[in-house]
Amino acid sequence: MLFYDFEVFEYDWLVVITDTDTKSEQVFVNNTQALIDFYNQHKKDIWVGYNSRHYDQYIMKAIICGFTPQKINHWIITKRQPGWKFYKDFWKIQFYNYDVMTDKNKSLKQLEGFLGHDIRESTVDFTIDRPLTEAEIEEVIKYCRHDVHETMHIFMEKIEEFQSQMELLKMFNLPLKHISKTKAQLGAVILEAKQPQTPRNDEFDISFPPTLRVYKYNEVLEFYWENRDYNKFLEMNIAGVPTVFAWGGLHGARRNYYDTGHFINIDVASYYPAMMIEYDYLSRNVKNPEKFRQIRDTRLKYKSVKDKREKPLKIVINGAFGATKDKFNELYDPRQFNNIVIGGMTLMVDLIEMLEPYCQVIQANTDGILIKLYREEDYALIDDICYEWEQRTRMELEFESFHKVIQKDVNNYILVPFGDLYDEKGKPRWKSKGAYVKKLDNLDYDLPIVNQAIVDFFLKGIDPEETIFECTELRKFQKIVKVSGKYDYARYGTKRMKERVFRVFASIDKNDKELVKVKDGSANKISYTPERCFIINNDVTGMSIPGKLDYWWYLDLANERINAFLGKGE
Predict the structure, then answer these.
(1) What's the whole-number mean pLDDT along residues 348-374?
(2) Is 58:84 a contact under the CB 8 Å cutoff?
(3) What is the pLDDT of residues 34-93, one digit of tens each?
(4) Would the CA dihedral through 524, 526, 527, 530 be positive or negative?
């Protein structure tokens, strides 16, 4: 495997390539023939980059085809055109590119920041209108090499993504060139989907599931039957829960709910794939729908025996849903997308109608509901009602019991289990959702000390002050800030900053300033950043906490969010 990254300037270009097998590095600076020779020696290898699906692979292909890197760079960066449109024969170039980027909203520098690594940028301006000096080229190589190494770190953090992709190629006997495709594109290939030559015009010709039984909340059905506007939504009270119905799903929850008792989280297992199979809601572009059923059944068989091959198959069956709304995917079929979502919502309303007289509904979403038993002995009755719904709808429900619910709203909650908070392997048994309380990982590590303080308070009764003031790890206090292209630049105090990504910490030092984003000369506050902060863009792993860190700012934010859960101060 070769990890690579291109940097392109007006008069110069370079690429750093690291070979994982030989642990060697190659650097090519303005040397077209040497790079082409290297490519010819390694055209059977997998080339790995970050955002390389949209950028770096086309720089490489352009060089191979005789174009200058500057021309294709201008096409992609300045004109904002997709690389594949630049030259019709790009697809003929054998280039096995794997893109580590799985979230287009997060840049490489942001992920480096979450990891606690160095996110400093080169001081060499990419818009410089002259050939680079030798010193400038050396500096660019240094930072380019750093990004290649960081791409390797992120690849290892997401190694299962790559393994799943490779496993799919093996399972379905597909050529290695498909390593370059997204999971959704690969799913379309596996299902042999093909868009019709004449586009369909039946996006809103929806059909409700034939097994549906809704009587009390018939207004929901009428809304989707009559509505043809994606911007419209329906707000109504369902079983005492304020609920919103839109084209992407339903969301309802009791606000600022905090209680103990016997709660049951009822989820539909593999809901959308099951509807695709049982109600013929699979994309009509699929050549053989039976193949989809076989993949689903094989996945369930693997899952039951804890066979790791179930994970790549899950990608295929779940991806077949989202791809129905992607115009550039062969599975594109917006009518079926609407049928799946509306079918899922209305069947969930069906279940709520049946359960409502015998329990309290706490929250609902498109594929599940959370209820509270009035009496412990009602469990068997709830089970019987759900069983009838399963038999009629041909869907399968999964039950999970919880002891306590702490719920701010539909998007922020903690479900506390009966018994221990952790399993025998030390894995948390509670469920949480939302930016305030979600479980963080190395590639999503923003204000972690605040999340920890809130969760520890609700789960363990630990005072937020204790969690925050006793922490000795600087990285836990980091806030990673990205100033998007919608803004002209970032400003720290009166200093205009060249960087776009920053690692900031709250400060008590009066000499420290506020970091703001500027557009058309107007300064705008950056969400959840302090009015006084210090910036550390080099590596902070293992770094001790400086005396000027403003612990109280983090404590105030944690208390503010705790109060938001409890409905105080709003």
Answers:
(1) 95
(2) yes
(3) 999 999 999 999 999 999 999 999 999 999 999 999 999 999 999 999 999 999 999 999
(4) negative
| Token pair 């034939």: residue | 210
Hey, is 29 helix, strand or coil? strand
CA pair distance 535, 9, nearest whole angstrom: 28
Distances (CA, A) of 131 to 70, 125, 134, 205, 516: 13, 12, 9, 59, 33
Q: What is the DSSP string of 558-570?
A: HHHHHHHHHT---
Give the span between the Cα atoms of 484 and 490, in whole angstroms: 10
How many other CB atoms are there within 10 angstroms of residue 520's CB atom? 6
Parallel, antiparallel or unpaired: strands 96-99 and 46-49: parallel
Tokens of 475: 């990285």
Exposure pattern of 110-136 as b/e (b: 16+ CB <10 Å)?
Answer: bbbbbbbbbbeebebeeeeeeebeeeb
State phi, psi for 428 to the nearest 5 degrees. Answer: -60, 140
In the chain, domain spans:
2-158, 218-410, 448-566
- Give, as one character, the DSSP assignment of residue 92: G
d(CA 160, CA 288): 29
- Nearest-angstrom CA–CA distance, 281 and 268: 17
Q: How would you class 205 by CB atoms within 10 Å of its CB: exposed for 0-12, middle for 13-18, buried for 19 or more? A: exposed
In a 3-state reduction of DSSP, which class is residue 244?
Answer: strand
Angstrom distance (rounded) from CA 397 to CA 271 = 9
Three-state SS sequence of 266-323:
EEECCHHHHHHHHCCCCCCCECCHHHHHHHHHHHHHHHHCCCCCHHHHHHHHHHHHHH
* Cα torsion angle, 224, 227, 232, 237, sign: negative
Element (H, E) at 59: helix 56-64
Residue 321 phi/psi, 5-degree rounding, is: -75, -60
> What is the pTM (predicted TM-score) of this model?
0.90
What one-character DSSP code corresponds to residue 91? G
CB-CB contact of 310 with 263 (8 Å): no
Cα-based distances in Å from 499 to 83, 119, 431, 496: 26, 9, 37, 9
Domain 218-410, what architecture? Alpha-Beta Complex (3.90)
541 vs 545: CA distance, rounded Å: 11
Q: Cα separation of 478 and 535, whole Å?
A: 9
Report the C-alpha gap between 65 and 46 in whole angstroms.
Answer: 19
Spatial separation of the C-alpha atoms in residues 61 and 495, rounded to whole Å: 40
Confidence of residue 569 (pLDDT cuts 50, 70, 90): low
